[in-house]
Write a structure and sequence with these properties.
The chain starts with a strand and ends with a helix. The protein has helices spanning 51-70, 86-90, 99-105, 109-126, 137-149, 161-175, 184-196, 219-230, 237-241, 243-260, 270-283, 285-292, 297-319, 338-341, 350-363, 372-382; strands at residues 4-6, 155-158, 199-203, 209-212, 329-330, 333-334, 342-343, 346-347. It is α+β, with helices and mostly antiparallel strands and 384 residues long. The strands form 3 sheets. It has a 4-stranded mixed sheet, with helices on both faces. Strands 5-6 form a two-stranded antiparallel ribbon. Helices cover 52% and strands 6% of the residues. It folds into 2 domains: 4-26 and 98-292, no CATH class; 297-382, no CATH class. It is built from 16 helices and 8 strands. A hairpin with a 2-residue loop joins strand 5 and strand 6 (333-334).
Length: 384
Amino acid sequence: MNELRRKRARPESRSAPKSANLRSARTPLPAEGAALAIAPASFKGPGAIGAKEIGALQRLVGNGGTTQLLSDGRRPYGDSPLGLFGNAARNRPVGAVQRGVVQRHLPGVLAKLAEDLTKVRAALGAYDTADPTNGNLLEYINKHVTDINALPGMVTILDSKPKLIEQLAIDMAARAEPPTAVNASHTASATDEVMNKGGGGFTAKDGTVYMLESTKDSSALYHELIHVLSGEGGVTQLSVTKTNLNEGFTNYFAEQLARKYGKTVYTAYPVATTWVNDFVAKCTENTAYNIYFKNNEALLYSTLAGRLKTKVQAAKTVFDKPESKALKESNGVKRTDLGAFYTGATIKDDAVLAAAVKKKIQEAYFMDAGEPSIAWLKRLCIDD
């Protein structure tokens, strides 16, 4: 979502298999002076780009990338392509700046990206999971993940942890209230996330994704792009209520897609992801899709409340039998639970049950499987 995705630490040298479904955001560097399909003379006015500047862009983003970025007359800020990146980037080797960094800073790129993503999210929100003619759900999600991964400026692949730390610190400063300049605290927090907590990538405030080279072809990239699909900047109603559970839904779909398409799966948010796996096993993947991609947090509570109601009613029937007077528990439901769900002989209405479920979700951290609220949800809402 809005914070660095925490992945298990892994060696920087580990290579991932090439993917036909998740295309890399990097472009091979061309030979200097390679011909383009556009000419320097096409650019006029202040800041016009000449052969020298186009050569610099070629070295940064490749022939195809340069053609794509400049064919509509867009120009970088300042009098040189290197003016895009600020002083820190000017001190790096040209080849160290990835395509996504170039693209995201060009005029109109982020605005166009936001427009494209809004359309994709609308399509996901309109998808009818109950219509069997719509085909396989994971294939449908993967198509959109693949499509947005190819959008200019969507993904920036970074080839070292220090670069990821730098970008994360910038994003942390941008998310501060009010936004502030990067300071030592941001850098320390970003360093801790990447170096100590195994962070491999994050979704930035502007809705774009930064990834380490070592995680670009794995569940980690799926995770970030699924965040982007779920809402603007990766923010959903559920993420506001319970961030870790939202991460669990995100990672559930990321792991399912990674396994389906033969990508590396990195463990992330294990307790929350396991909980969502259990939820899907009982409540279906379609329901999980409608909660997450349609931003329908209330469906989570009403679905669990429905299971709670069925289970509690069945237990009460058992408890009410004369021969069960000494029985203290039936199928996970304790006799002492009934008072919370019944008024006399009448079970409370669905809204009250949904509110009880929501309260337990809010109380849970989804960090430890033994948390009391998670145990309550498992006992009364998940287990049959």
